[in-house]
Specification:
The complex is a heterodimer of chains A (about 300) and B (about 775). Chain A is α+β, with helices and mostly antiparallel strands. Chain A has helices at about 15-25, 35-40, 80-85, 85-90, 90-100, 105, 110-120, 125-130, 150, 225-230, 235-250, 260-285; strands at about 10, 30, 50-55, 65, 70-75, 135-140, 145-150, 155, 160, 165-175, 180-185, 195-205, 210-215, 220. The chains are: A alpha+beta (about 300), B alpha+beta (about 775).
Chain lengths: ~300, ~775
């Protein structure tokens, strides 16, 4: 569809310039990858008066590891994550997540930060960030703000972002002990698809687990009851069965055009069992390579 | 006979233009002062139109014309079989894709805005979305006084007697889905006023001559005043017929009204909303069988959802009724195929044309029969399969070479079918289970008794020996131009680089019927051969005079005239061409081919339906994850008797593409409606297989040359696509012991045995009728 609304376009050279124009405009939209925004403008769902393109801000295009914390800048694309050496080395499960996001063409444009700003329930980045207890970093005219990822998501398509603010990036602290992870995403075929169930499991060498679900909840959640059940325990078949029983308490799937509630619940259990097994195996050094689908 | 060019993998004549970007697709045509056309479509799937107010839209700056049905000077409806499809809805809208008004404006944006300013008042009517509902006498009528608009039947022998003789009966119900053609290029045209009156339409049109008839009738013009020119097509799969006719008519109407060129391009969403689909069928199969595995009686009833307009339903369902028994012996047959109107998208031609639906049922039934009598799928088909001389359900004696058993045996060997089938049958405890399945098909070539079947191709030699070929058969990406060029090059003894092919133009080539029914090579190719032979005779006469040698001892080879006895080069082809021109001889060959006779008695349901048939086998090897319902197709064997492969690479392309598309039909594709409102309008929700979903495919080309085709060639476009789905479904059965009776075999159908469909409120669901076993629990006694 042709774009029938007019808007201004600006590509600022510095973050402060970007913040200034954002503060001055009534209804500005921030453009990074544009994979969501451009479609919404075309379909007339978004009608910004100004589009602020932040791709020119080099300070936001970084992926860096400092002080035991990974910083993913707002301009970093999923392809950047896949190619990052530091991620493959320290956070291979991020590589595993990024590989399942859409297709190569989209991954070359789409960003993690854009993904959590759109905040649709089936996003892939949400479960990842809350499992790592990540922090969302914002800049505004009044200064910087940091929000825990778990508080960032408010409702579908609704976040804690305030008018005039830009998300500069996300920070993922490296867990204090050795860990491994597994990302399991349910699509309807091997080609690119939006997730019907998302699951991220981190297994830590201190015997604790971090488990988060996406797509079967309005906003990504940590499965706190299951974590509590498993933490410090020897993982036995009967314990796994107990954990699976708890899944229905942790998630709230719906039936839509992509999958039914019944199937999503069934699959959340299968994915949990396979993902847990894979994460533990990886922790013990005998798991399958990252990027191998468990379903 | 040894060929120079036939049978080789010659590079396609359109390859370079397509890969370098010089090929011009419909959207690439732009001219000065062109306007942009836009269609305002229906708000309801079924409603009376009370009032259309265009006054606000008219006032918008940049709007040049707004048209409704009342502004059409000639015929307001069109249709190849039943003339009831509205160019613009006049009394009521019958599905959501119906056009209600047209806008032409200076920019796309203004056209879009103007369309949104047109106010239409509707009186909504009850909606019929279920074809079986449409049959009921109390149902609201969509056209005239009956929703049923087709009933074809075939009878053979005595069905009652057959069932009496049977030892047992297998009776099953099957369902298939709506399928989107998914051509990579959506519909587009440019209509321009012609300099001496009339209109020229350039666009992604598949069947130019039927589109031309409708444009001429709508505009009240003679056929010679309407020129339709084929742009390079980005795929069709049967999908650029009526929907393109409607677009041609609309753009031409706006063009004639404004006197300016008008461009129209559908977005993907508009395309999916408006275009016709492959028919969903409900199929009731009842077979009376004997303990030895033979079939004594087949009673078959199929109901096709024709959607809002008749389109090709009468022909699609006719192919179904002819082929409904499959290539299997049965003396007592009763088949009835119906088509009914609903408020869903209308359904029409799509690669297969009535065969994929019945093949799914037939091949599932055949595996059930094998299971019942303790035979394997290979043996049961060898036992029942047609041989040369067999008499079909319609009473036609197959006097060509019936190669069913040859393709069956070759495929089974290549796939190691029997070993694997036996191995995979053994129950295992692993959640992932492998299975292998096969399916056969036979298919009537070309149009058959549907109607006049003839085509023309022009071979024109230039004075420098280069050659221009053009035909009434269109190339939509299937390679028709390359095949016809190869045939002309073979006859003339020249290389492919001497040939230039022209896109079809209705004013420059004869009406050759539609390019459908896998008839391009057999019809256009035979015409090309005849055309080239006509020119060759003039060139040879010239050569004989030049050399003083008898025509019989001369030949053309590798761009030279040679002495046929010793291969000595006597002159270049170019020199002969120049000399032929100097002698004042025509260098233009017009080849016309009328197919062999077919016949049909609709009253008795008998006849020589098609002049020849092709035979094929697909074997699928799958892995089913019984915990998730996921079916991975691991390996695939596709084997077809093509008569003669004119271009080996094109044939392989058809094999691979056909399997990929068939896999989508079997496993994932489904154009779904909720109360006749489409649930998906783009490829985020309408899933088609990607390269990551397509398995390793082993192609086996079988060549039993047929007298009816050029160099023995028959068909492959549709045969390649019509039997992958049942092969996969049979493989799932082999893996799990559970059978799927409704396609696609999505994750949920495989795992749960049913699919839940969304109904009403977000999050609520209704369970659909159970038409599949769940693979979650393994049956006993296997």
């Amino acid at each position: 569809m042709p774009i029938i609304h007019k808007f201004d376009y600006l590509k600022p050279k510095s973050l402060s310039e970007a913040l200034t124009v954002l503060a001055q405009s009534k209804n500005a939209a921030i453009l990074a990858g544009g994979t969501d925004l451009v479609d919404m403008i075309k379909e007339n769902v978004a009608q910004p008066d100004l589009v602020v393109d932040i791709k020119g801000l080099d300070e936001l295009n970084q992926i860096k590891f400092e002080n035991d914390t990974l910083f993913i800048g707002a301009g970093a694309t999923f392809s950047d994550l896949i190619e990052s050496k530091i991620i493959k080395e320290k956070y291979p499960v991020i590589f595993e997540v990024a590989k399942t996001v859409a297709s190569v063409g989209i991954r070359n444009r789409a960003t993690v930060v854009g993904n959590i700003c759109s905040a649709v329930p089936c996003m892939d980045s949400g479960p990842l960030l809350i499992a790592y207890d990540a922090t969302v970093q914002l800049a505004g005219q009044k200064g910087e703000r940091k929000i825990p990822a778990a508080e960032w998501f408010i409702a579908p398509r609704k976040t804690a972002l305030q008018k005039g603010e830009i998300v500069t990036g996300v920070s993922l602290p490296y867990p204090k002990v050795k860990h491994a992870g597994c990302w399991v995403k349910l699509g309807r075929y091997t080609g690119e698809d939006l997730a019907q169930v998302n699951l991220l499991i981190l297994a830590l060498s201190d015997g604790t687990f971090r488990i988060s679900f996406g797509a079967v909840v309005p906003i990504p959640v940590r499965a706190k009851k299951i974590e509590k059940l498993l933490n410090g325990q020897t993982i036995t078949p009967s314990l796994i069965e107990k954990a699976k029983q708890l899944i229905e308490e942790e998630i709230k799937p719906i039936t839509d055009v992509r999958a039914t509630k019944e199937y999503r619940i069934h699959m959340a259990k299968v994915m949990f069992e396979r993902g847990l097994d894979a994460a533990i195996r990886r922790l013990n050094g005998n798991g399958q390579a990252y990027g191998t689908s468990m379903i | 006979m040894k060929h120079k060019i036939i049978g080789k993998g010659e590079r396609r004549v359109d390859a370079l233009g397509k890969v370098t970007g010089t090929a011009k697709y419909a959207e690439d045509f732009n001219v000065m002062h062109q306007l942009y056309g836009k269609v305002l479509r229906a708000k309801h799937p079924h409603a009376k139109i009370l009032k259309i107010d265009t006054s606000k839209a008219q006032k918008l700056d940049g709007v040049e014309a707004i048209l409704t049905a009342n502004d059409i000077p000639g015929d307001k409806v069109f249709g190849v079989v039943v003339r009831n499809q509205a160019i613009l809805a006049h009394d009521k809208v019958r599905y959501l894709g119906d056009g209600v008004a047209l806008v032409a404006a200076k920019t796309k944006e203004i056209a879009e805005q103007a369309a949104s300013l047109i106010e239409v008042e509707y009186e909504p009517l009850p909606v019929i979305s279920d074809p079986e509902e449409a049959f009921k006498p109390e149902s609201i009528k969509i056209h005239g006084d009956d929703n049923q608009f087709v009933h074809h039947h075939v009878t053979k022998g005595d069905i009652e007697k057959g069932f009496t003789e049977a030892d047992f009966i297998i009776e099953k119900k099957f369902k298939t889905q709506f399928i989107e053609h998914s051509a990579i290029e959506p519909e587009a045209v440019l209509a321009e006023p012609a300099e001496h009156g009339g209109v020229i339409v350039t666009g992604s049109v598949q069947n130019l001559f039927s589109s031309r008839r409708s444009v001429a009738a709508a505009l009240k013009l003679d056929l010679n005043k309407v020129q339709i020119i084929q742009s390079t097509l980005g795929g069709s799969f049967g999908g650029k017929d009526e929907v393109m006719t409607a677009m041609c008519c609309r753009a031409a109407l706006l063009c004639m009204k404004t006197g300016k060129p008008v461009k129209m391009v559908n977005t993907r969403e508009e395309s999916m909303l408006e275009s016709y689909k492959r028919h969903p069928y409900v199929l009731y199969y009842k077979w009376g069988c004997k303990k030895n595995g033979s079939i004594a009686a087949m009673e078959i009833k199929c109901i096709a959802d024709g959607g809002a307009y008749a389109s090709m339903s009468p022909f699609v369902t006719w192919r179904s009724v002819v082929q409904a028994t499959g290539p299997y012996y049965c003396e007592n047959v009763k088949t009835d195929v119906y088509a009914v109107y609903t408020n869903n998208n209308y359904t029409g031609a799509m690669r297969g044309f009535g065969s994929p639906q019945v093949n799914f049922a037939i091949e599932s039934m055949m595996d059930e029969l094998a299971e019942k009598v303790g035979k394997d799928p290979f043996e049961i088909r060898l036992q029942n399969g047609f041989e040369t001389g067999a008499v079909t359900a319609t009473g036609q004696k197959l006097d060509h070479r019936v190669s069913l058993k040859e393709v069956l045996t070759k495929s089974a060997e290549a796939a190691d079918f029997l070993n694997k089938w036996n191995q995979y049958r053994t129950p295992s405890t692993s959640p992932k289970r492998k299975g292998i399945g096969l399916a056969c098909s036979y298919r009537g070539v070309s149009l058959g008794a549907e109607g006049t079947d003839a085509a023309g191709t022009i071979v024109s030699v230039q004075t420098d020996g280069s050659v221009i070929v053009s035909s009434g058969i269109t190339d939509m990406g299937q390679g028709a131009q390359t095949q016809m060029s190869q045939i002309a090059a073979e006859v003339l003894g020249i290389s492919m680089d001497r040939i230039q092919f022209l896109n079809t133009n209705t004013s420059r080539v004869p009406d050759s019927g539609p390019t459908v029914a896998s008839r391009g090579t057999i019809m256009g190719g035979t015409a090309a051969k005849k055309g080239a032979e006509i020119v060759r005779a003039f060139l040879m006469k010239t050569a004989s005079e030049m050399t003083g040698l008898d025509v019989m001892s001369l030949d053309f080879k590798d761009n030279y005239l040679i002495d046929a006895n010793n291969g000595e080069r006597l002159a270049s082809f170019n020199e002969i061409a120049a000399e032929c021109f100097n002698k004042g001889r025509p260098m233009y060959g017009f080849g016309w081919y009328k197919s062999p006779q077919t016949s049909w008695d609709e009253h008795h349901g008998h006849g020589e339906a098609y002049f020849t048939f092709v035979y094929g086998v697909n074997i699928a090897e799958v892995e089913v994850d019984t915990e998730t319902g996921k079916v991975d197709v691991l390996n695939f064997v596709s084997c077809h008797d093509v008569g003669k492969a004119i271009n080996r690479n094109s044939v392989l392309g058809q094999f691979y593409g056909g399997v990929a598309m068939g896999l989508g039909y079997g496993l994932m594709e489904e154009f779904d409606f909720e109360d006749s409102i489409p649930k998906q309008l783009n490829f985020d929700e309408y899933l088609i297989p990607t390269s990551m979903d397509v398995p390793n495919i082993i192609p086996i080309i079988v060549e039993n040359e047929d007298a009816a085709g050029p160099f023995g060639a028959k068909s492959i476009g549709e045969p390649s696509n019509e039997l992958a789905a049942p092969a996969i479904i049979n493989a799932i059965y082999n893996a799990t012991g559970k059978r799927i009776y409704e396609i696609p075999a999505t994750l949920e159908r495989v795992l749960l045995g049913h699919k839940l469909t969304r109904k009403g409120e977000r999050g609520s669901a209704k369970k659909e009728e159970v038409l599949a076993d769940s693979c979650k629990i393994r049956p006993e006694g296997r």
